[in-house]
Amino acid sequence: MKDNSINDNATSAATSAMDDLHFRRSLFADPTTQDKDVIEAQKNDPAKKRLAQELCQFDEQIKQAMKIPVPDDLCNKLLLRQTLVSHHQEKRKTRIHLALAASIAIIAGLVVNYLQFSYSYSNLGDYALAHVYHEQNAFSNGDNTRVSLTSLNQKMTTFNGNFNESMGELIAADYCRFDGMKSLHLVFKGLTDVVTVFVVPKEDHLTFTDKFSDNTLQGESLSFQHANIIVVSDKNESLSKWESIIKNNITWLI
Amino acid sequence: MKIFGNKKSTVQVSTNMATKQVRYEALVKALHGDLYRYGYWLTHDKQVAEDLVQETFLRAWRALDSLQDEKAAKSWLITILRRENARRFERKRLEMSEYEEASILDTQSTSAEQKIDDNWLRDKIAKLPPEYSEPLVLQVLGGYSGDDIANMLNLNKNTVMTRLFRARHQLKDALEKEPDRTRLIYER
Questions:
Q1: Is residue B54 part of a domain?
Q2: Threshold 0.90, pTM exceeds
Q3: Domain map of chain A by residue range?
Q4: Domain containing B151 — which CATH number?
Q5: What ipTM goes with this model?
């Protein structure tokens, strides 16, 4: 069988345009070849044609044999595994995002804290002036609001102090940040403009300045055992008058 | 405004994810069989072939955006699988155990005779030197041309054609040594 199918090409080989070896090589390398010479060579040679058919048949068999069964669950396994992996990644991403957001929030908090509570002035006077200028537009001598002595003294309890009598027309009394320290900010009606009184806890970072002024404002500080009291007004006001009023009026509870 | 913009881009991202998912599923469904078989003929081990396919598709998922041409998907995956297989050998030089082709049972409904022939032929294919069987698998199973195979295996075309010639020649020789197998080519 072998002989007549493959090697028995003697009769036609001589007449073939393509030599036998080349034909066999091409066909074995690719039985479905569309090479013109290979196809032409088969036309006049039944043995070559048979060989070509056999090889095509054989290739079908090889293909069949190569198609080993694929595990039924492989497809699902692949899809499942991918789902798990991307779910994992997604979760990790969320965690990273969360961590990032948290870090940013913490940093932002620190920065705000730093800005708000950092000490940017070196003495009481400078800061007091800056503070007054900052709130210049918030109060005016013509404001009609008045704060009672009782509510002022309620606020003064924070500093363990108490005012015995009303010291004038109090337009506003509120806690505020005095260069990072919780202080009481009092605004009195003055002669021509408001008089600002700060009650500030004693702290080391601001050096005590008993008198200070600039072109428009003047100020004086009174030092008590637990707090400083600072008075800032325009130049029409007699600060010594305010000072004595405060001194005579205040009682410290400790 | 800003929040709205963010929301829109989130939607965009999840649509992209959904598209990617669909592409991936289509890829798995269409090609996992071919890839598994290719892996099997590369490794002669069903379990290893399955692991390779898993690894390949996982990498494919991660790199899916780099796949521009869906027609090239199969050869792209085959390239990944071959690389994975090479990596496997780097990890541990596996001792090549004797093949266990005889134990493969065909679940397809073919005749008993066909099954025996398939198994016999599988055994012969498995015994081909890997440099012969690999291009043969790519050609017969993958349907790739000599040029494609040369590209995929980084060989020149003449080498590929010679190896294909030798692969078939060896199989045919083996066949002719066993006259009762010749029905594989002569009788059907």
A1: yes
A2: no
A3: 2-66, 82-118, 124-252
A4: 1.10.10.10
A5: 0.75
**Residue B105 resides in a domain:** no
pLDDT in tens, A204-240: 677 788 888 888 889 888 888 888 888 998 888 888 8
Is the CB of B182 less than 8 angstroms away from the CB of A1?
Answer: yes
Nearest by CB to A61, which of B58, B121, B169? Answer: B121
Residue of B nearest to A66 (CA): B122
Domain count for chain B: 2
Tokens (6 digits) for A245: 């009023």
Q: Which of B91, B118, B148 is the last residue of a domain?
A: B91
Rounded distance, CA A242 to CA B3, Å?
54
DSSP character string of A170-198: EEEEEEEEETTEEEEEEEE--SSS-EEEE
Contact B122 A29 (CB under 8 A): no
Question: Is CATH 3.30.200.100 the classification given to domain A124-252?
Answer: yes
Question: Rounded CA gap, A223 and B41, in Å?
Answer: 95
Q: Are A190 and A234 in contact (CB under 8 A)?
A: yes
Of the candidates A28, A63, A78, the beta carbon closest to that of B32 is on A78
